[in-house]
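Recall that a protein's primary structure is simply its ordered list of amino acids. Everything else, from secondary elements to tertiary packing, is in principle encoded there. The following example makes that idea concrete.
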Amino acid sequence: MKIGPACPPMAPKRKLFMRCSDVEALWDEMRGGAERGHEHVLAHLRRCKDCQCAYEEFEGVAYCLHCLPGVDPPQSLVPRILDHIRSLRNHFRSTECDGFGRVASPLGDLWLAWRPSGITFVGIDRGEDTESARAVIERRLRHPLRDAPPPPWVADAVNRFFSTWQVDVSRIDISELTPFERAALLKAAQIPPGEVRSYGWIAREIGHPQSARAVGQVMARNPVALFFPCHRVVDASGALHNYGYGLEIKAKILKMEGYKPPSTRPA
C-alpha cells in the first residue's frame, strides 16, 4: 500500500489527526477485528512523517520476507508444534478469567479488572454499556473477563487512593507488561500527589534518557490509570499534553490532588 502525497492541512477544529500512540491503539483494535479506525489511521499516516518512515521501513522488511523461498518444516517438528498448541489451549481453558466490574469513586464510576495477584485495569466509565466496556478492555488486556462483584480489597484500593492519593503498588498486577513499561509506570507512581514531572524526567530516571517519546506511549497505553498516575506526567514545557480521557479530566484529577498550574501560583 502506498501512502501517497501528504494531504493539505485540515482546519484545527475538525481534529481528525491523532498522535502516533492513538494510531498504535487503533491498529491493536483493528487486529482484533474492529474496522472503524481504518480511515483515521490512513489520514494520520498521510500527515505524519515519522510514521511514514516507519511504515516504509517495515514495508521493505515485509517485502523481503515475502520474497524468501518457502521452507517446509521437518516432519519431526509438526507433532511437537501440535503438542504445544494443545498444552496452551488446555492451560487457557483451565485458567480462571480475570474479574470485571464497576466501582464508585469521587471521579465517577470506574471499570476495573482484577485477579488474585492484583488489579490489572482501571478505566473511567464514560457511559458505555457493560458489554461494550468489557469488549474494549478484553482487547486491551488480550484475555477474557468475567462479570463479578468487586471483592472488598478492590473497592478498598480505590477508596484508599482517593483518600490519600498514594499508590499501593502491592494491589496492582502489571506483570504482563514489558520491563520498560513497568519501569516507566513504577517511576510515575513515585511522583508526589499534586506535583508533575515530564516524560523526559521519567526517561532519564529509568536510564533511557533518549526515550521520552517511548515513555509518552507507555503513559498513553497505561492499563492501570490513576493507580499508576500518568495524569502527573506532562510535556517538557509543563503543559498537561494529551490524556486518554481528555485534558479536562486530567486537569480535574490534578486539581483534586492539590496541583496548582504555574500560571496560578503566587509569585
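The longest strand covers residues 118-124. The chain has a mean pLDDT of 79.
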